[in-house]
């Protein structure tokens, strides 16, 4: 995507260096750009629903979502959840409501048939502006930390699911159904009747995400599943006691453990939406655990998506500051200068 293709003004964080905040901003740009391309390509009657995954974000019964429907003559109507649809404790304050209006949303009930939702009416030739508004709403008002925390559905006029290009790192809900072997009740998901062993269910989920078969997964002698992510490597390991799935990555090896490194890892961990960073001997690790008891495929999918993006970003960032070797980094080793340690940014 070129600079000219970017949605106008979307989430431009001021930063003169390539830090983690810029990486997250770029993920949102990719999400918005894909949405801007998708909307004009849909037939009248089609609709797109984007939701902040409540199981991943910890919002429980609070469902933050935006729906867009393409009408005749290139008209697009969008609805965004309002306070009347949210449980107490998760409702927007006056400032957030003002932000919604400033983004272009009409208050609930103003747009015809909007009911208790915020409404917006535009056209397909304004799809980039709509994508900007939706992205800002999900991130800045509803609090989605990264597009990987979003799930979406695309349906046609008959409410049949459509297979479309991905919306960045957001998760397509039909893919989640496939990861459950078309039916979580058959034993892939949690519950009292867990017919398949945990390691079989994990391999099925990872194979589905990788668009391959279980037999073609890359596994080492310890049974760890390997997934390449740029210059990093992510592993998925199943532990028996207690039942746990560990999604982890050796971010850097042959790195010198220093007080500055420990402080940096602590800062970054505090800013991570899930998971942790730590140093063991001369290796920096990133880890996102997933409970094996009452296993939920969606949780593993989120952990893998977050870790593959995180590992590829962090190994470059930390190598530039502390040296060491990346998993696929050729010629790595020299540490950065002692004055080159910059403070952590929000992930």
Automatic annotation (TrEMBL):
Region labeled Disordered — which residues?
325-347
UniProt domain TY-Chap N-terminal: residue ranges: 26-150
Report domain TY-Chap central positions: 198-329
Any Pfam family matching the protein: TY-Chap3
InterPro entries per record: TY-Chap_M, TY-Chap_N
Output this protein's name.
Answer: Uncharacterized protein
From what organism does this protein derive?
Answer: Mangrovihabitans endophyticus
């Amino acid at each position: 995507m070129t600079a000219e293709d970017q949605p106008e003004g979307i989430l431009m964080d001021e930063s003169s260096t390539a830090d983690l905040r810029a990486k997250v901003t770029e993920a949102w740009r990719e999400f918005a750009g894909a949405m801007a391309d998708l909307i004009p390509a849909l037939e009248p009657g089609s609709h797109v629903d984007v939701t902040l995954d409540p199981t991943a974000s910890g919002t429980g019964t609070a469902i933050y979502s935006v729906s867009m429907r393409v009408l005749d003559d290139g008209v697009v109507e969008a609805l965004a959840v309002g306070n009347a649809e949210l449980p107490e404790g998760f409702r927007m304050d006056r400032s957030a409501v003002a932000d919604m209006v400033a983004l272009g949303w009409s208050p609930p009930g103003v747009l015809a048939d909007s009911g208790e939702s915020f409404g917006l009416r535009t056209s397909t030739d304004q799809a980039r502006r709509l994508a900007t508004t939706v992205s800002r709403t999900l991130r800045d008002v509803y609090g989605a930390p990264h597009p990987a925390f979003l799930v979406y559905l695309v349906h046609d006029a008959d409410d049949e699911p459509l297979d479309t290009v991905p919306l960045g790192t957001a998760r397509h809900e039909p893919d989640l159904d496939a990861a459950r072997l078309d039916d979580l009740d058959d034993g892939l998901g949690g519950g009292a009747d867990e017919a398949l062993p945990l390691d079989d269910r994990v391999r099925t989920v990872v194979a589905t995400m990788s668009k391959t078969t279980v037999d073609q997964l890359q596994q080492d002698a310890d049974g760890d599943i390997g997934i390449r992510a740029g210059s990093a490597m992510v592993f998925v390991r199943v532990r028996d006691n207690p039942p746990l799935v560990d999604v982890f990555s050796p971010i850097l090896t042959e790195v010198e453990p220093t007080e500055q490194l420990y402080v940096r890892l602590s800062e970054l961990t505090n800013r991570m939406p899930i998971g942790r960073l730590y140093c063991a001997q001369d290796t920096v690790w990133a880890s996102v655990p997933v409970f094996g008891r009452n296993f939920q495929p969606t949780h593993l999918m989120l952990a893998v998506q977050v870790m593959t993006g995180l590992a590829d970003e962090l190994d470059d960032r930390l190598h530039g500051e502390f040296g060491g070797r990346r998993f696929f980094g050729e010629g790595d080793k020299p540490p950065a200068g002692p004055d080159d340690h910059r403070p952590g940014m929000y992930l």
